[in-house]
# Entry
Amino acid sequence: MAQSGYAHAAEHGEIHACLLQDLRCFSSRCDTRSLSLTLRFLQEWLLRHVATADRELAMALRSLGFG
# Structure
């Protein structure tokens, strides 16, 4: 992101670091008896990020000539 000139690269990198930390926390608390519910929550959680922060990143990269 930074090499492409994306203005919010550092902030977006921090968001991804937080997402990874959250995922580690979720996995340590995951109860295999409710795995289906946990996976559904994680899917919605990740898609929410993709639909917001990653969408902005994709648009910025396209405007810079990537993709």
